[in-house]
Amino acid sequence: MGPYIIVCLQESQRMNNLLKTIKISLTELQSGLKGELNITESMETLQYCLEINVVPANWVKVAYHSKKSLSEWFADLILRCERFAAWSEDLDTPNVLWISGLFNPMSFLTAIMQVTARQSGLPLDNMCLRTDVLNVREESEITALPEKGAYINGFFLEGAGWEFGRSGEQGYLTDMIHKELHPELPIMHVTAIR
Description:
By secondary structure, this protein is of the alpha+beta class. It is about 45% helix and about 15% strand. The protein folds into 2 domains: about 1-90, Substrate Binding Domain Of Dnak, Chain:A, Domain 2; about 95-194, no CATH class.
């Protein structure tokens, strides 16, 4: 089992733990509201968080890092579940990995370094990551895995824009486009180098 698949399994396990926590707490709250259980302080806190659109603290403990409101966080959770389901179905690395959808993105990046270090017979401590921003925005345009490293997406800029390169040249940072606060970077190719 390769490091990418191990990362996939770890991420799926974390997602299952989060979903289980959400389900248990909401089921208990529903039972409390129906009068089947005594309302506890944690149930009151959960109800209050739901009313004011804040992610409950007991969910935050087992969730990925996010500063979104509950409604935005929940929409993001659904998207993450869909991606994990597709990834777990094949137990194969997708052609383009949505890295910001992982609980621990660094574990995937470390796996890239581990694979390269093993293939090259180099010590892992001497490896670092190299990223090349491609002139591609759509995942569907990437039809195969790279020979080395991985294609990733899910990074955003703040206070800047990105312009595609011309005639095969790499793109570059530009001034921010008015009212476009967080433009998404194109797909990147991440490799490990010495």
